[in-house]
Amino acid sequence: MNLTIALFGIAREIVGQSQLQLALPTGTSVQQLLRQLQEQYPGLTQLSSLAVARNNEYAQGEELLQERDEIALIPPVSGG
Amino acid sequence: MNLTIALFGIAREIVGQSQLQLALPTGTSVQQLLRQLQEQYPGLTQLSSLAVARNNEYAQGEELLQERDEIALIPPVSGG
Amino acid sequence: MLIELTDLPIDVAAVLQAMQADGAGAVNTFIGTVRNQSTGRRVMRLHYEAYDAMALHQLRRVAEQAQERWPMLQKVAVVHRKGTLAIGDIAVVVAVATPHRAESFAACQFIIDTLKQVVPIWKKEEYEDGTVWVAAHP
Amino acid sequence: MLIELTDLPIDVAAVLQAMQADGAGAVNTFIGTVRNQSTGRRVMRLHYEAYDAMALHQLRRVAEQAQERWPMLQKVAVVHRKGTLAIGDIAVVVAVATPHRAESFAACQFIIDTLKQVVPIWKKEEYEDGTVWVAAHP
Questions:
Q1: Which of C19, C36, C104 sits opposite D22 (nearest CB)?
Q2: Which of A6, D40, D55, D79 is the most exposed place for a label (fewest CB within 10 A)?
Q3: Do B10 and C136 touch (CB under 8 A)?
Q4: Does D12-133 carry CATH code 3.90.1170.40?
């Protein structure tokens, strides 16, 4: 399946672009996606936290991703 | 000594005027003043509290009043 | 420090202006307005009366106590209205500016809580069928 | 409920207007502004970036959580700024209206505290000699 991952803040700077297009096996979990991105972009492992958002909600590690999902990487938030 | 007692809120309404002129023996305490006023105006004893202010500060019962003091009766406050 | 007792409508924008400080990241503001009911009775309007000299002195003292307790407090304003107020009118505004937010909440709440206990201001509620001095009787 | 994410300066007066309710006696407002320093470094300006769709969704959810926790909450507004801000600029305004004051403080503080934990907005501080994404690294 093809996924588009939106990137923000320091995650965008580490990856060097504001979104990533990935072709992943059907049934890839949030945790597997994170692991793959951290291997590809080691700077992501240095962050205080790194979450995945799926359709505007924080996703759990075991959730399985689907092609139509809106996915984003969420580095430590600092609003307010 | 001659004292002027300023009255506010419900204390003013109970007494029926906005200040009282009293001639009191030198050395009258705050507590003695309160007792005398409560005897004269029994409605004052019905209040949730009744304090005496002396020169813009809350006065303790044992404090002695002096002729130049600015005295006021302070019924329960309800600002805000 | 902005301490005021006024017969005129309170200018909230002016109070907020007074909170500006480059080192202050947090401004907490409490606005007390006249409610349309009190202990189940419909309120028509409110009458506020103050012992002006003492009220100003005590308002200042409350603000100073807050500054002692929260030394990082950078700006503080307390403005209280007097006279006759309609439903929705602003009776009191407390504002504080601090570097960080937790202190702004704590200091602002301390000031309004203490104000209500010690500042000689009295509120008479007017209903359709009478008036009551708030908190006067047990 | 007023929930907004904006590139323009936040209109605090409009937020306060939105708090008007005849049954509300207490309005608590938190205003977060840009400080001139952070962890000892002099800040020149700030850059806020948001994941707009999710940020709005999460802001709304935080406001709804406050309404569930404080059912007496009558009005709530959360407005967050985006883009480049100068020292003293307003980054966020939270306002709540409740019948009594204790709940207004608690609900307002809950909202800003939760916002800072969950809403996908990021702040980059700009110093004379570089920039840092706040809280990004341990």
A1: C36
A2: D40
A3: yes
A4: yes
